[in-house]
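Purpose: get a first structural picture of the assembly so the mutagenesis plan has something to point at.
Setup: six entries, given in the order below. No constraints added.
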Amino acid sequence: MKITDKAKRKELTQMRQKQILDVAARVFSKKGFARTQVDEIADLAGLGKGTVYRYFKDKKNLFLSIVDRGLESLKDLALEAMAKEKEPLDKIKKVIEAYLKFFEKHSDLIRIFIHEQSEFQKRIQKRYYQHYYEHVNKVEDVFREAQTLGLIKKKINHRLAIAILTDMLNSFIYTWQLTGQKYSLSESFSLITEIYFTGILEQRGK
Amino acid sequence: MKITDKAKRKELTQMRQKQILDVAARVFSKKGFARTQVDEIADLAGLGKGTVYRYFKDKKNLFLSIVDRGLESLKDLALEAMAKEKEPLDKIKKVIEAYLKFFEKHSDLIRIFIHEQSEFQKRIQKRYYQHYYEHVNKVEDVFREAQTLGLIKKKINHRLAIAILTDMLNSFIYTWQLTGQKYSLSESFSLITEIYFTGILEQRGK
Amino acid sequence: MKITDKAKRKELTQMRQKQILDVAARVFSKKGFARTQVDEIADLAGLGKGTVYRYFKDKKNLFLSIVDRGLESLKDLALEAMAKEKEPLDKIKKVIEAYLKFFEKHSDLIRIFIHEQSEFQKRIQKRYYQHYYEHVNKVEDVFREAQTLGLIKKKINHRLAIAILTDMLNSFIYTWQLTGQKYSLSESFSLITEIYFTGILEQRGK
Amino acid sequence: MKITDKAKRKELTQMRQKQILDVAARVFSKKGFARTQVDEIADLAGLGKGTVYRYFKDKKNLFLSIVDRGLESLKDLALEAMAKEKEPLDKIKKVIEAYLKFFEKHSDLIRIFIHEQSEFQKRIQKRYYQHYYEHVNKVEDVFREAQTLGLIKKKINHRLAIAILTDMLNSFIYTWQLTGQKYSLSESFSLITEIYFTGILEQRGK
DNA sequence: AATGAATGAGGGTTCATTCAT
DNA sequence: AATGAATGAACCCTCATTCAT
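Result (structure tokens, whole complex):
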């Protein structure tokens, strides 16, 4: 009995946490950290305010839990995507695709990641980059491999190139959402990869 | 006499406004809109809080004035830069350069532009895009011209391509500042243009 | 069977009540009424919070039950102590001794009695003095008897003198505990009685 | 002009602080720290809540300021009283008188001093005893002098004797107020000194 | 015109109490 | 009978805005 009880307890806890995190992500995304009221999150979750505080120490902690969950999930998807392919360039394409799909699904997160980063600066960056680099390192390896194979220009600094890719993607999806998805995401996806891989110029060298 | 007085008055007003805007840009940039206190702006400007309210209706208005001033100034620089060159591709390069230089100088603004955009959403977007498009339209013309001349891939949607360029630049400078300028801006500049113009792939067609 | 069951039930109830009261006295003593959380009492008693509420209507009621139990117990001890002696002055000494011993053992209570008295003012005073006077009256009788016998100065108002004695003792033990028992209780005890009986002055009349 | 302005400013500040402290002392005294609402203090002071926070960092700080002001004032009165007399025993009597008069006037403070001491324990004790000992040391000197002159029993530990005196007085006035001043303060005063100086016993040694 | 003291709506957080299991 | 998850009233504190001087 006790085992079942404990299990039930834990399950409830996780369910409630998810319930709150889901709502909170939506609200934080819409209003940003400062303008979000814990009251609204509680209401939308169909819970009392006190219940939110039962599961999350305070507003900041709730916010960071969203960031954490998102980063964790994103990292997993990206690594998983890479694992599916053999060729370095294909791996990179898959990662890009995974990125776009992830944010297409969890469009809440892009705003949270971008417009609230500086809100928490020092304290949060650590947490952020801890996840981020774990993931980026893998991509860097792929990038280097592609350079070794002569697929990518040798003179390009891979760390920078990845930063640029990340930024392009982040900012792209961000704008995409902000402007109300005026242009389709998949059309844009091919454009992004095209630009990233071969640039905007007509091949002259033929 | 009255004319001189009026002129003097107006000059003083403009001076005060500039004084406040400069300080406010710094503070908003460091803390974001919500965490910035009007008190701090007044203090740093060496003025009374009431004086700030004499020159700006409220906090939001002050914030938007910064955005306005920044966009105006950026637009001017970009158009001016384009005007100096004849060739379409050179025009685009100059615009990119102008962008980077502008934000290198006014690094306050990149944060304000990026992480506070959604804070004001609907109401602000109008103002933002009003400036933005006026500027973008000119660039689009250049882009189209380059395509007509066979310099840029025909299949690329110019509106999207410019959006991507803008995002790359914005987000690039943003990250650049956020991470404490670990890599040099000019080095990155050439990388960005390189990637934007020719991609990351080795030219195979030779 | 039913009788035994009932008895068992009652016993359990009393046991639980004692268990809770003991813990609660400790916590209320350490933190005062307002800063004490029912949660902490339940935890320390190894019970669920709901169980505490099964045995005590609310927090205030729990607190007052402690006061009641303490006063009852103190009164018994004092009266018992007096009963053991014949001589009035000896009775008074015994009472003093009983007081000190009681609070030495139940040091929790002195804080509760003193620093929370006013917390409940009107409503509580009644209960307090109901116990108190029942007890004080007996001592007053002794005091008057000693005066009749010429042992105690005639001009002294006995009610006042007892109030002063009580205060001296209360406040003494309170300070004694508050300061971390820097000086020994028994040393101080003889000093108190000495002062109370013969004052601080050197006997001049010799 | 500026000098006058500054002076005026300072005057206003002090006036407001006094205004708030006076009200706050009353309310804290009536309800204790925890049950006192800052709102009520503000209301009774005829001020907005924000104004209270303009002059005192937070509720705790306000409370401690009351304690400070009281201790300072009490210390001054006591030292002043002692200074007026030559003979050690007279000095002690004057101190007792000063004590009683002080609390007769500032009856708010006795409750605050007594029933909230433990609320703040560690942090506050320092502040309390800092004032307290400065004052007690002087009294101790007088006490020792009286012993040297053979006026006070040699075997009495002066530190303890003073602690007892203080307690008697504190607790006496406390009870006096709590019970609604049923007996007169001055009558009690002479009884206290009588008891403290010569005890309750009839002089047998004649 | 400039100031900064005063304000109070607003929102984060706590915790006594309830009640379904 | 025992539990502890859920609740929301209560209360501290902040800060944009106003306005008398």
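Residues 37-39, 49-50, 53, 58-59 of chain B lie near DNA strand F (CB under 10 Å from a C1').
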